[in-house]
Amino acid sequence: MFSQSPFGPMGSDSEIRRFEKLKKSLPAISDAYRRREAVHTSVVVPSISVNQEELAKVEGSAFYEERLLFTLIRLINPLSRVIYVTSQPVHAEILEYYLQHLPGVPLSRVRNRLLVLCLYDASPKPLTQKILDRPRVLERMRRFIGDPGRAYLTCYNSTVLERRLAVELGIPLNAVDPALLWMGTKSGSRKIFEEAGVAFALGSNDVRTRDDVVGALDRLGRARPGIRRAVVKLNESFAGEGNAVYTFAQPLPTDDTERLVAVARGLEGMQWAGGRETLGGFLRKLGEMGGIVEEWIEEEEIESPSVQLRIHPDGDLQILSTHDQVLGGSTGQVYLGCRFPAEEAYRSVILDAGVRIGSVLARRGALGRFGIDFVVTRKRGGAWQAHAVEINLRMGGTTPPFMALEFLSGGRLDPDSGLYIAADGRAKYYYATDNLRSSAYRGLLPEDLLDLMVEYGIHFKHLSLTGVLFFMIGALSQYGKLGVTSIGNSPDEADHLYRTTVGILDRATGATDQEQGKPRSLFEPAPLTLV
Asked: Which CATH number fits domain 177-200+299-394: 3.30.9.10, 3.30.470.20, 3.40.50.300, 3.30.930.10?
């Protein structure tokens, strides 16, 4: 494909020069969009452009392309146009489900401003690569865009593929420059934390070989006498799937040679977060992308919150949200869901640290939405301490639920309290998961789910700005899995809405507790009630 392109091969000087020129046009386009002053086109390519071997560990990952369908809410602005591209077809009723949330906007007035393109390609390649391989698709996108000076590219994560797509379309990429992606790796994150003066776990960066890992673990064992566990992380893994938990021998030998032998032997007993890894495969990927070794932080009380921020094209840093992450898996490191906002007791602590880190990223030229994961700890009755864990320079699992709240409730985040105040003047709370699953749910088609939602009255209501929103609906029939965001006027109401939703799905399908995934058992069973 690139041989036919005027920009030559991937990463050519011509491509980079064009990308830099397009980047300079983004602030004016963004400003016009935020002020609703001009017709603009948002090109949404929800490609999961990450290591495809790691992505394959996530069941139903092909349907993660549906997670950005909430961006269709942008069509509420009559001057906006949207292109949304997917690898596989989106069920017609799923598409209408999202469009019906445009209050006061007839669907007939929306359709001529929306182009949904399907590539009918289920191959294990990033969606962006599939687009670049199809010149005719690129041309269709260019025709719909019209004036490229009023368009921008939105993506799940930014790589050299997204940079090339932006150049081919002649529009700026509204995401971090791929040249800065090192800041979002595990090693890069630790370097940014140090520059920001934020506490983080003791460990080693840029490890690549088995000997590197053994040496880093040995140094950690000597620096932290009595340490029980450490974690080895692949630089470019996500959702905790590329993490290995190491357990130290107790006690470690004092003789240098014996200690190194004991540390090396311990690699054979590492636990894998996703449970689908081998030591040989892990070390191979470590050699390809590098990684880190760091201590496993332990304390009497420990939680795993996160902060989400956005850097606008003009360099303005904006706080978006805080969440308490719900983690699970065999090692307790796999992302399963989240609660918004994070607990008040440590919310200000992580917000302060998040802003300090975000300020460093902004100074270095980062752009778009990103998240920062933390571990917060305290001794009983003491003060909470925040330890930065990693930077995700992309959209993440917390993006779709907050995007839904942001666009549907018409409110704003109070940066002082960390609460989201909706248009009705009330603070909103939610519980969200993209991993509600049961084998019994495979008996439901998307239309069945939407019927149940209306029948039991749990759908999102614009009058109260509360209710349940679904996403990744396309994964339901094949994998028995879907995403849920339950929005309430209190944490208890949000949790109750989630429990009620699970109860409805269980009753409709005959699902049992044993069939459910981890998020199913987060709460005690609640009686089936109409909301």
From this structure: 3.30.470.20
